[in-house]
Fold this protein.
Amino acid sequence: MLIKHSICPSCSVGCGINLINKNGKIVGTYPYKNHPINEGKNCLRGKNIYKIVDENRILIPLKKEQNKLVESNWEDVINLVSNEFKSYSPEEIGILISGTNTNEENELISKFAKGQKITNVGVYADNFPKFNKEIGNYDDLNDAKSILLIGDIIKENPLIGRRIIIAKENGAKIFSVDDVNQTTTSINSTKHFKTFSITKFLEEFPQEIKDELGKSSLIVFNKIDLKEDFDKIVKIAEDSNSKILPVLKDCNSFDAINKVPPLNKEEIAKIINSVKLLLLINIDIFSFFDESEVNIHIPKYLISITHSLNESSSVSNIVLPSYCWAEKSGTFTNTAGEVQSFDRVIKAPENALEEIQILKMIEKKLKA
Amino acid sequence: MSSEFLLIRAKDELVCGLGECGGSVTSILQYLLDNDIVDNVLTIKKEGSVYDAVPVLISNSEELNSTAGSLHCAPTMVADLIPKFINDTKLAVVCKPCDAMGINELEKRNQIDKNNLYKIGLNCGGTLMPKQAKEMFELFYEVNPDDVIKEEIDKGQIIIELKDGTEKGVKIDDLEEKGWGRRENCQRCEIMIPRNTDIVCGNWGAEKGWTFVEMVTGKGKDLVNNGIKEGYIESKTVSQKQIEIREKLEGIMINLMKKFGEKHLIIEYPSLEKWDEYWNRCIECYGCRDICPICWCNECEIEKNYMKNSIELPPDPLTFQGIRLGHMSFSCINCGQCEDVCPMEIPISRIYKKMQRKYNEKTEYIAGFSDELPPLFSSTNE
Ligand SMILES: Cc1cc2nc3c(=O)[nH]c(=O)nc-3n(C[C@H](O)[C@H](O)[C@H](O)COP(=O)(O)OP(=O)(O)OC[C@H]3O[C@@H](n4cnc5c(N)ncnc54)[C@H](O)[C@@H]3O)c2cc1C
Ligand code: SF4
Ligand code: SF4
Ligand code: SF4
Ligand code: SF4
């Protein structure tokens, strides 16, 4: 049994978590009490996150033959991938990623795309745009006088939720907004506003909240309807001298949206529908699309770099098995903009390769 | 069997210097590993700073030096790690009273085999939460917390030693009056000397550089005597006066802790309205259950009956905590782990400890100490 520090990759808060390694397998978690963000506290998702290491794990490169994924080897699949890359023009190729890749991976992905002159690149980021605004930090929350919450922050990002509870115990006023009547956040706020549209709510921003927002206030939001909503929130914050804290989707969305364009569903769909070759890096496009909602057509050739078999990888032409976060060292930038490094806790399966290595192999082959 | 006392310290000068009070614990562990009496040692190890520690399992006695010393900002719990991850080995475990009580409850639930285990107890006056400790050192000691290289609790003070060799102390009472100091559970923890182990080590009653050891069991007496015989530790006899000093300190501490117990569990116990507010924020993460060293049902009924419809709002505290209260509150050892990990700042252990107190008043069942589970519960939980 060996217990080691890590960072929870399950949401963008960036909590510390200790992983218990027994005989090369992660068998549980243990509180990381010295971590400044969460002091040993984790939510249910965080505590269970270690299970993703073995879930639907892909152990060997796969390629599609007669409509079925069959086992292959690295040489073979890298050859196939590079041949496909060579047979399309850059406009016909797309790269989509999630916000779960490390800073180092994002850097390389962006360089790779530029090198190949591929412009159809992006990270799925809900409706969050790239921004260049000063943001509040978690400690600001503890001492805030008033907080506006957009989305069910307490339930979905509990270790930010905790700070809100602390603020409330210290006498802060908590306002919440959502498109449902009751949420964990709403039942813990001073006043809840139900709205059909967050955009509309921001446009007709209640005077009642405006009156309470000031220098030690924060607007914390994990959902918006439109990219433009972001600027509306920024405007409200600027007018009231308060701070914003956008809570992004994934553990490293903060870095990803600064290295590749952040895309919402429609923009993702546009890329999917316009390219012939699509490379997916640790992203399952079907996890946020349901086909009835947006009409998407799977491109002619789909390549997945991922550690687990999901809906996207199961329809891919090539599946390249990569490392899980616990198997590599790197850095994530949390939603408050803090860069945190984490170390490898266990060894990856024998036939998996680290994302960086996979991209470098493809790059090398393309140069040859 | 009545206890015997000795003053001991490591014979090896290096270990003696590394240890908190003469390195006796470390050298006894070395003796156990070197002589294949145990396969592994379970204790805790510093990670970078005095505020950070993780449990470690050690099989090579040379690695033990890195674990010497007491860490007061490391509120760890190791009891449940044994049945979960280490059950297949002959083990020695270093335990604070809460660790030792957890082990005792698990032994009674047939989750730990007594015969495969050496329990090396430590006296304990309390631990601090790392972040709180750092803020406190900044605020009350006016030092950079990163400069702190050692901390101890002695003579009613929390004393820190800085990089440059200076020492600073502040009275625990003064700190705790203002809401700082030791964890709330430690403030009311009534067990200072865990006599449910084989030997108990501490500095009370000992002169500087030595450990006062109380050998509780026959196994413990053999262990210390063989450690001396094999040249790992040296010993001195204990004077009557030293025994009295230690008893007196223990008595003073227990009285103080009882006062805290009254304060937390009676005088300042949250009102029903406050509990309603607490339950409203419960996110049903089961953190409190999962971390509790005593919660040990193979197929937890909370999961079975409750998880399915846990999306209800507001959360239903009676069903969820109720099952746990019925299953284990009589065994609550007041370790505070549940409260430490609660993301929603719910003082959850107060309920369990309060129930345990009531149960104890009625039945005299002492959680973590009594030899047998109360008859009603002895078979229901496995
Ligand atoms: C938090 C704490 C509070 C204490 N309070 C008192 C007290 O009030 N009165 C008293 O007489 N004695 C107290 N002690 C015991 C005392 O400090 C020494 O640990 C004891 O005398 C043994 O000294 P040593 O040199 O033989 O131990 P060492 O050879 O230094 O070995 C110490 C062992 O304790 C382990 N350890 C260190 N910190 C912890 C921890 N937080 N939890 C679990 N294991 C740990 C180490 O890993 C190591 O194995 C306390 C110890 C701790 C850890
Ligand atoms: S709040 Fe987010 S980062 Fe923290 S434990 Fe939960 S999922 Fe992990
Ligand atoms: S609960 Fe008791 S034994 Fe455990 S760390 Fe606190 S004071 Fe020590
Ligand atoms: S209920 Fe809480 S305080 Fe009591 S034994 Fe369990 S974790 Fe420890
Ligand atoms: S740890 Fe706290 S929030 Fe989680 S289930 Fe227990 S009481 Fe509820």
Notes: The pocket of iron/sulfur cluster (ligand 3) is lined by residues B 75, 96-98, 124, 126-127, 185-186, 189, 335-336 (CB under 6 Å). The radius of gyration of chain A is 21 Å. Residues 227-240 of chain A form the longest helix (14 residues).
